[in-house]
TrEMBL record:
It comes from Kryptolebias marmoratus (Mangrove killifish). High-affinity Na(+)-coupled choline transmembrane symporter. Functions as an electrogenic, voltage-dependent transporter with variable charge/choline stoichiometry. Choline uptake and choline-induced current is also Cl(-)-dependent where Cl(-) is likely a regulatory ion rather than cotransported ion. Plays a critical role in acetylcholine (ACh) synthesis by taking up the substrate choline from the synaptic cleft into the presynaptic nerve terminals after neurotransmitter release. GO terms for cellular component: axon; dendrite; perikaryon; presynaptic membrane. It is found in: Presynaptic cell membrane. This is High affinity choline transporter 1. It catalyses: choline(out) + n Na(+)(out) = choline(in) + n Na(+)(in). Keywords: Glycoprotein, Ion transport, Membrane, Neurotransmitter biosynthesis, Sodium, Sodium transport, Symport, Transmembrane, Transmembrane helix, Transport. GO terms for molecular function: choline:sodium symporter activity. Belongs to the sodium:solute symporter (SSF) (TC 2.A.21) family. Its main location: membrane. Homooligomerizes at cell surface. Interacts with SEC14L1; may regulate SLC5A7. CDD domains: SLC5sbd_CHT. InterPro entries: Choline_transporter, Na/Glc_symporter_sf, Na/solute_symporter.
Length: 590
């Protein structure tokens, strides 16, 4: 393989620019959020809560507009059996940001939480917080691994350099500036990366459109030229599958730490909402060049290009249609600029996910579950170590695991099926408790895993109505693969079942314990008796020797979480808007 010197120089210059911006952002904001009693660890996680509209809008948009977003959108528009009708990510994630901004951003930000898991641990206890950390961590790590893997494949298409080397170097740069500056470095590099993606892809589109091998995309949108029309269509049999996937993107895109890290770093709750709406618009705008590149790929006579006689879909390379269009339909200097855009997209997502995973571990697992007396500097070092460890883990998976996309699909489903209904319950449903949370977790997990996962060759043990056996042919090898496709919207049904299980079991256990049907000694999770005994006894007057003893004069009742732990969940100085700081008090307002 030959190394294209111009491409290599372009990538090196781009990476140096990103590294410079990351280090500059860390130096510029080294004392932000630390003064006036602030903590360095919180500054790394949420950037001193002073991220403004400009930087905030860019960094929240860049969280979604990653390598998977721009490559995946182009791929689905290009694929003959799918087309634009199945490219759901742009509208799905844009609506996800709108819904998040309308309903979730304000209550989370106004209470001054530091991570997404804080309200869960505050209401359900540290054990349940640890359980919910598992799907959240899996989602972040597998997502990082999937996009790093995509980056390696992209770079190898255009520049002909070693995949492993390109992935490792990209990951090291992202890890380094995240280590140095935390959220500030991630946010400021996102501004540069999003600008590069926008300019890089838009520069490439006119050159690709004007290539002689490309037919008029307005004609190929509705008529068969080289393959079926790229607008695509939804068959009647697939309508529930389409709806299920759309709700997965729209609602499953909310309960991610990468999103709430931006929400919680905003300078006020109102700003957090505005950032969500800005990012929704940004996601749609950034998807346009990807849609056009997918349409160009579907309108190209590949026999007239340097790619070869077979189309990418016939070589099982549809997932790389974006870099293939850049290389074979654009001049070299333009394709290298576009390559920088793809690299930017990947790094802008990888750094966010790695920081999110380390924030949740350092705060919700290490500090609140194991080392409640840990100093601020200790938490900072735990964060730095886990940034490196999680970054190395994602990189290793990108290089060594062939089914990394399958792992990410499954983990993102678990985030939707398990964490979203829990978030809904903890913020908006009064009276849910740890027993209901555990029941919801188990119901959601079993119903989702039971449906199987073709990408991981995981067979289903629950066959939902309307399931079919689908045949997949690998064009290069001629191998035929059969897998079960669930056309029933089982992911959304699993999510609803998880939510209902949480509510029903919470109220059932509350009734059983408070009515005396179950002895208080069986409340082994301290979720009902200990938690509610104070509010029950507040209404009662204890009589002893005919003297009234007020509850406040007695020893305090032990709660599921100690006051010292509960107090660490909210930073009172961060409550920029008038808002209560506990889920229970929020419920009482509604």
């Amino acid at each position: 393989m030959t190394i294209h010197v111009e491409g290599l120089v372009a990538i090196v210059l781009f990476y140096l620019l990103i590294l410079f911006v990351g280090i500059w952002a860390a130096w510029k904001n080294k004392n932000s959020g630390v003064g006036d009693g602030g903590e360095r660890s919180e500054s790394i996680m949420v950037g001193g809560r002073d991220i403004g509209l400009f930087v905030g809008g860019f960094t929240m948009t860049a969280t979604w507009v990653g390598g998977g977003y721009i490559n995946g959108t182009a791929e689905y528009v290009y694929l003959p059996d799918y087309g634009l009708a199945w490219a759901q990510a742009p509208f799905g994630y844009a609506l996800s940001l709108v819904v998040g901004g309308l309903f979730f951003a304000k209550p989370m930000r106004s209470r001054g939480y530091v991570t997404m898991l804080d309200p869960f641990q505050l209401l359900y206890g540290k054990r349940m917080g640890g359980l919910l950390f598992i799907p959240a961590l899996m989602g972040e790590i597998f997502w990082s691994a999937a996009i790093l893997s995509a980056l390696g494949a992209t770079l190898s298409v255009i520049v002909d350099i070693n995949i492993n080397m390109s992935v490792v170097i990209s990951a090291l740069i992202a890890i380094f500036y995240t280590l140095v500056g935390g959220l500030y470095s991630v946010a400021y590099t996102d501004v540069v990366q999003l600008f590069c993606i926008f300019v890089g892809l838009w520069i490439s589109v006119p050159f690709a459109l004007s290539n002689p091998a490309v037919a008029d995309i307005s004609v190929s949108a509705k008529e068969v030229i080289y393959q079926s029309p790229w607008l695509g269509k939804i068959e009647p049999n697939d309508k529930w599958l389409w709806v299920d996937n759309f709700f997965l993107l729209m609602l499953g895109g909310i309960p991610w730490q990468v999103y709430f890290q931006r929400v919680l770093s905003a300078s006020s709750a109102t700003y957090a909402q505005v950032l969500s709406f800005l990012a929704a618009f940004g996601c749609l705008v950034m998807a346009v060049p990807s849609v056009l590149i997918g349409a160009i790929g579907a309108s190209t006579d590949w026999n007239q290009t340097t790619y070869g006689s077979l189309a990418p879909k016939d070589k099982d390379e549809s997932d790389m249609i974006l870099p293939i269009v850049l290389q074979h339909l654009c001049p070299p200097y333009v394709s290298f600029f576009g390559l920088g855009a793809v690299s930017a997209a990947v790094m802008s997502s990888a750094d966010s996910s790695i920081l999110s995973a380390s924030s949740m571990f350092a705060r919700n697992i290490y500090q609140l579950a194991f080392r409640q007396s840990a100093s601020d500097s200790e938490i900072v070092w735990v964060m730095r170590i886990t940034i490196f460890v999680f970054g190395a883990l994602a990189t290793a998976m990108a290089l060594l695991t062939g089914s990394v996309y399958g792992l990410w699909y499954l983990s993102s489903d678990l985030v939707y099926v398990i964490i979203f209904p829990q978030l809904l319950s903890v913020l908006f449903i009064k009276g849910t408790n740890t027993y209901g949370s555990v029941a919801g977790y188990i119901f959601g997990l079993l119903l989702r895993i039971g449906g199987g996962e073709p990408y991981l060759k995981l067979p289903p043990f629950i066959y939902y109505p309307g399931w079919v056996t689908v045949e997949k042919i690998h064009h290069l090898t001629g191998d035929v693969e059969y897998f079960v496709q669930q056309r029933f919207p089982f992911k959304s049904v699993s999510m609803v079942a998880s939510f209902l299980a949480n509510v029903v079991f919470s109220y059932l256990t509350k009734y059983l314990f408070e009515s005396g049907m179950l002895s208080h000694k069986y409340d082994f999770l301290d979720a009902v008796v200990s938690k509610h005994s104070k509010e029950i006894m507040d209404k009662a007057t204890l009589v002893s020797n005919h003297d009234n003893i007020i509850l406040s004069e007695m020893a305090p009742v032990r709660q599921a979480l100690g006051a010292s732990i509960a107090g660490t969940f909210t930073n009172t100085e961060a409550l920029s808007d008038d808002g209560e700081s506990s889920p229970e008090s929020f419920h009482s307002e509604n």
